[in-house]
Amino acid sequence: MTLSEGARLEMLDSLHWGVLDLAKCGDRDGLSIRHSVEWEGRSLLKALVKKSALCGEQVHILGCEVSEEEFREGFDSDINNRLVYHDFFRDPLNWSETGEALPGGPLGALRAMCKRTDLGPVTIALDSLSWLLLHLPCATLCQTLHAVSHQDSCPLGDGSPVGKVHVLGLLHEELHGPGPMGALSSLAQTEVTLGGTMGQASARILCRRPRQHPTDQTQWFSILPDFSLDLQAGPSIESQPHSDPHIPPVDPTAHLTFNLHLSKKEREARDSLTLPFQFSSEKQEALLRPRPSQATSHIFYEPDAYDDLDQEDPDDDLDV
Amino acid sequence: MAAVATCGGDAGSAGSAVATASKSNVTSFQRRGPRVSGTNDSGPRLVSITGTRPSVRNGQLLVSTGLPALDQLLGGGLAVGTVLLIEEDKYNIYSSLLFKYFLAEGIVNGHTLLVASANEDPANILQELPAPLLDDNCKKEFDEDVYNHKTPESNIKMKIAWRYQLLPKMEIGPVSSSRFGHYYDASKRIPQELIEASKWHGFFLPEKISSTLKVEPCSLTHGYIKLLQFIQNIICEEGFDGSNPQKKQKNILRIGIQNLGSPLWGDDICCTENGDSSHSLTKFLYVLRGLLRTSLSACIITMPTHLIQNKAFIAHVTNLSDVVVGLESFIGSERETNPLYKDYHGLIHIRQIPRLNNLFCDESDVKDLGFKLKRKLFTIEVDSISL
């Protein structure tokens, strides 16, 4: 199966629209990247963060799983200067009690982002959402994420609109049961599930807009060393195993012991047949307009095609 | 002269009698004896509330759900004082449409609305209600829809025996605006003046709870307690429970609660199997039903039951509600491309119909129903595959 040139470009455009240019996916955006052990998702997250930073948005990172140095690795210095990093990896329970740890943990940091005063679009990257899900109650996390991503609907006191908020979350598929996954899926605007075959990564993008049908598309991609995204067509055709060889459709009426086909004459005869319980016009009229002069019981007889009307000899049709 | 004088005198007294009669708005004859002012339901006059009608079966007061086809399946409509629970489809497209039809029906009939939601501002929900189809243009549009639907299939229609022609159809023609049940155009928005003329109360959960409040653990989730208190206040203040007898015109309160049980309400029933607040939702439904039974109100609740992990819990919830309707849409499933189901967008399951003051309930004979969202109308039809 080959993709035509036009279709391929359209998919490229739609991925740009759907993943990289997050603002197009609606005013409110929550995007969750589901990855598994085989297909790593942090590089995609970093690629999206880089893209947002290059667009001029303010980027906040909640780092819980990897250290700050490891996260910043691979970014060049101007991007690193734009990232605001909240570190919860080094001291998640705030044991060192220094002033630099944020109060309230990651939940407090998220809530503080709800009450921000500066305008302009913001991207918040959660690395990772799985860590937050394991350490916080699911319902509280869902409520806080919803509040953070919907703050543009509640404008500031002076009436100026707050810029759009995009929330990106990284989720490890194998760690959670269907309950939390389902709850977060229903909350997220876009869900990107990573998979792939034979060394090539693919992203299955499920985009649900509020009152429209969800769209589901798959895009092959690869991440370059400087964390920019390279979109590709699928893997080469010859290496793909053919799943089902071409089977001609079986005609079920081919080898029967009885005949199911009608000839033209038979079809005409069938169409001209009158059905047994159809009212003739005489009967219909008599029923609709009961005449008072009529006897109370009246027999309506519609002769069939094979009926014998000769009253004299009932055995006339016998071949004796 | 004397006659004129007496006429003048009589006219004066008659004038005052007429004046008092127009004030009490009943009749020009004054009854002797004490009479409570303001009430107009003394005597044999029936109190009729707009948008309601008594059921033919047992005289129960019914309101329309906004979809005449669904009203027919439920035995005429939704009884006042009961809960209609809609089990959401996976992407919450059709269940939110039914929710909006219910609210739009309330606006067209002049009922008071109470909209509660944890993820959307109620004012935004009201802006997106569908526009009602009124008499003059709705018949033309309805026929046009039916015509478009029927034409391509008429030439392959089978000539079958007469019995199938007598099968009752679920679709009924449009009714005039003064009667029970209206049709709505899902592609247009309700006119702004109708919303402004209506009376509504909104409950948006993030506004009502402040997240930094320290809440003691109790049996009901904090959000549910707030919602119950809000509903109870509205019912008491506006006299839907009959506590305010000076009110002349009785009205119905239509309550709509969206996405009940989702994590945004603070309930973890969708996240875990046996959570701490696993009985919170059932207690909420129990208290809500108590509030509804003692007031002139009807409630619609949409619940994402496909996310609930504990399947026995869904049975509890079904028992605590009165009417339960499940929606199953074909989006994303293999049935979407199945040619057998090409006429429908999904299946609708009537899971429960209540027995109110009755020994049996008014179930329809047909169990397999499919729904289809046509260009403008939402229709429910008998699933022809099962015939």
Automatic annotation (TrEMBL), chain A:
The keyword Nucleus appears for this protein: yes
Principal location listed in the UniProt entry: cytoplasm
The protein's annotated pathway: tRNA modification; 5-methoxycarbonylmethyl-2-thiouridine-tRNA biosynthesis
Biased composition (Acidic residues): 304-320
Gene Ontology CC terms: cytosol; elongator holoenzyme complex; nucleoplasm
GO molecular function, one term: tRNA binding
CDD domains, per the entry: Elp5
Record GO biological process: positive regulation of cell migration; tRNA wobble uridine modification
Annotated keywords: Cytoplasm, Nucleus, tRNA processing
Protein family membership: Belongs to the ELP5 family.
Listed name of the protein: Elongator complex protein 5
Organism of derivation: Aotus nancymaae
TrEMBL record, chain B:
BP terms from Gene Ontology: tRNA wobble uridine modification
Region (Disordered): 25-49
One GO location term (cellular component): elongator holoenzyme complex
Keywords: Cytoplasm, Nucleus, tRNA processing
Leader peptide range in chain numbering: none
Subcellular location: Cytoplasm; Nucleus
Described purpose of this protein according to its UniProt entry: Component of the elongator complex which is required for multiple tRNA modifications, including mcm5U (5-methoxycarbonylmethyl uridine), mcm5s2U (5-methoxycarbonylmethyl-2-thiouridine), and ncm5U (5-carbamoylmethyl uridine). The elongator complex catalyzes the formation of carboxymethyluridine in the wobble base at position 34 in tRNAs.
Subunit structure: Component of the elongator complex which consists of ELP1, ELP2, ELP3, ELP4, ELP5 and ELP6.
Protein name: Elongator complex protein 4
Species this chain originates from: Aotus nancymaae (Ma's night monkey)
Lineage: Eukaryota, Metazoa, Chordata, Craniata, Vertebrata
Gene behind this protein: ELP4
